[in-house]
TrEMBL record:
The keyword Coiled coil applies. This is IS1182 family transposase. The keyword Coiled coil applies. Residues 231-457 form the Transposase IS4-like domain. Residues 158-185 form a coiled coil. Pfam families: DDE_Tnp_1, DUF772. NCBIfam families: transpos_IS1182 (NF033551). Keywords: Coiled coil.
Length: 474
């Protein structure tokens, strides 16, 4: 039996097939085309949004934006690969009307429009808000580390430099001793003095370099620095320490759409709750907002700031643990009664614990040694000479948070299901577990804005379908 046969390559056609015939009515590229057509590129700040009246015409930023949105949607981030797609991919040919910009032009467009990508991302979020895809009932905040372009081999930190300096000092002393030996050597002995001198000079140059780096970092007030990408920081990731950025997202619970994102240099999330929640509230233009985040966001000062801004946060409070014994259970902080007027604690034995010191936002109270040493409950209270109890500077905000979390235990479960979807997609689908392609915070922000736009676009199409999206954009 014969095989299924294709059409002969040299077959001509009386009515040639147009690109329009090849792209189905419900194809993704039609949504990208309709979305970009609606954008006011001048207001969004795109470079060359107004064509020049003289000289060689440039590419329309709308065409290049379409190419990038399509590229990020299809996990194609490199400008060279996008150039190749322009020459062989029918969908891109349809989208760009067969334009074929070279990789340099494509790369320059991404480099020159970093801020405009963030503005474009916000416009799509506004569209989703208008059509009801984003309701703003509950927002989950989460962060994840994305690797930077720079290599960890080019990363310096003060501790490492100091260790290096000690080693260099020892080796210099050793070489100086060898030089002395060479000076004292008898004429007949063969000690190569010039080789020792050269090695010594090299060590001294390295030491000077080391000390200069330390002095510079001290004057800049920083503990770490990457010579390849000054904005990037060494951060803990599931794969171990990496030079990375901490990407923060605020995700709407309704359809897991990202309504706000940011790229930060902070290795942890403790300072991110308030700025992210406030930015999400502003984006939603609501007077009140409920947000949820994991224990990594626990920060009493920010809990209070959120309450004052009309934001109800649901975060597992993470606080300093009071003294514990390995062998036995000791009294918890809750067993001590706080007297707000006197600013002191009363212990289970009825003795007073007074304020001893303030330490990084913690208030430390202690009992008198004489009280504890004669106390029959000491075995249940402390193994030390006296008992200490710590109280956070924003303890009341912590207590309110604890009450909220006890009343709404389902919040932590909701949080996980909302935030895992976007980061799973961004990391595996868009970045392929790879790293950023653009350097510095600004570059990482531009790339993340494109990635978030592609993610939101995909999510909106999954929920509404292409035809409905086209109707709503029309
Ligand atoms: S050990 Fe000290 S703090 Fe603890 S119950 Fe006794 S007196 Fe109070």
């Amino acid at each position: 039996m014969a095989y299924i046969q294709g059409q002969a390559r040299d077959q001509t056609s009386l009515f040639p097939v147009s690109l329009e015939d090849l792209i189905p009515e419900d194809h993704l590229v039609r949504v990208i085309d309709a979305f970009v057509a609606k954008l006011d590129l001048i207001r969004l700040g795109f470079d060359k949004a107004v064509p020049k009246s003289t000289g060689r015409p440039s590419y329309d930023p709308a065409d290049q934006l379409k190419l990038y949105l399509y590229g990020y949607f299809q996990r194609i981030r490199s400008s060279r690969r996008l150039e190749a797609e322009c020459q062989r991919n029918i969908e891109v040919m349809w989208l760009l009307n067969r334009l074929k910009p070279d990789f340099k032009t494509i790369a320059d467009f991404r480099k020159d429009n970093k801020q405009a990508f963030s503005a474009t991302c916000r416009v799509f979020v506004q569209f989703c808000r208008t059509v009801g895809l984003i309701t703003g009932d509950l927002v989950a905040i989460d962060g994840s580390k994305f690797q930077a372009v720079a290599s960890s081999r080019r990363h310096l930190n003060v501790k490492q430099l100091k260790r290096q300096q000690e080693k260099l000092d020892k080796r210099i002393v050793q070489y100086l001793a060898e030089l002395d030996e060479a000076d004292k050597a008898e004429a007949g002995e063969t000690i190569d003095r010039s080789a020792i001198k050269t090695a010594l000079e090299q060590l001294e140059a390295r030491q000077l370099n080391n000390l200069t780096c330390q002095a510079l970092m001290k004057s800049m007030g920083i503990e770490q620095f990457n010579t390849g990408e000054s904005d990037a920081r060494m951060m803990r990731t599931p794969k171990g320490p990496r030079v990375a950025y901490n990407v923060q997202t605020a995700v709407d619970a309704e359809h897991c759409l990202i309504l706000h994102h940011d790229v930060t240099q902070d290795g942890n999330d403790t300072q991110q709750l308030e700025p992210m929640a406030k930015a999400a509230k502003e984006q939603l233009q609501q007077s009140e907002l409920s947000v949820t985040a994991d224990a990594g966001y626990s920060n009493g000062k920010q809990f209070q700031a959120c309450e004052e801004a009309g934001i109800t946060a649901y975060v597992s409070p993470n606080r300093a643990v009071n003294p514990r014994s390995k062998e036995k259970e000791l009294f918890e902080r809750e067993d001590f009664t706080y007297d707000a007027q006197q600013d002191q604690y009363r212990c289970p034995a009825g003795k007073l614990l007074t304020l001893k010191q303030l330490n990084k936002g913690e208030r430390i109270y202690h009992a008198a040694i004489s009280d504890c040493s004669n106390c029959p409950l000491k075995g249940q209270c402390t193994d030390a000479q006296r008992r200490y109890v710590s109280r956070h500077a924003h303890e009341e905000a912590f207590e309110r948070m604890e009450q909220r979390m006890q009343a709404n235990p389902e919040m932590m479960v909701s949080r996980r299901s909302i935030v895992e979807h976007p980061f799973g997609n961004l990391k595996q689908w868009l970045f392929g577990n790879g790293r950023f392609l653009l350097r510095q915070c600004e570059g990482a922000r531009a790339e993340m804005a494109l990635a978030v736009s592609a993610y939101n676009l995909k999510r909106a199409i999954n929920v509404l379908g292409v035809r409905r999206m086209m109707e709503l954009m029309g």
